[in-house]
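Hi R.,

Here's the chain you asked about this morning:
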Amino acid sequence: MHTYFLTLFLGLALAIPVGPVTIEMMRRNLRFGASRGIVMGCGATSADVLYLLLLLFGVLPFLTNSSLLHILGIAGAIVLIWFAYKAMRAPKPEANNNDNDQSLLHCFSSGFLIALLSPFNLIFWISMAAQLASIIDQGKQEYLFACLGLFTGTAIWFVSLNLVVHHTRHYLGGKTMKYLNYIGGIGLLGFAVYTIFYVLTH
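And the predicted structure, written out as tokens:
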């Protein structure tokens, strides 16, 4: 069980820092409702679980090829630019209380793509390879505990954050939410530009 709690805290540490997933998740929560934000967070968590499995099965180190990292970084930046564009051209949020404007599958796949195509996410997991390999015992049961722990840790944060946003959104006026869409879009664009700069200079 130590593996479960280890990866639970690892999931919290991975999810809490503000990044593109957090920005887009909060924006969708404000526009489409808490369920869409939570599902998007679950999509991002699934990408992290996939990276953890690749690490545990020894595949992740083979993804450190610089050309692959460049391709991944550019692809991730394009995805972020697209989401930034969608955020900044979002209509006025008169329909904020309508949870049916965007499919759950779309929100899940968006979170999954942003997390999967982030070169920083890949580098994070590669940097954790040695530490996790020395702590997590080999065996399918330990792998299962590791994935469950990671999913639980990230889910705790994403669900908590979405509930806070959901219960405070009613205090925000239409103009404020429109400005938040712009701020979120600018934030995503900033992450995209930084990603391109990083992959071209490393």
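DSSP finds nine helices and no strands in the chain.

Let me know if you need anything else.
M.
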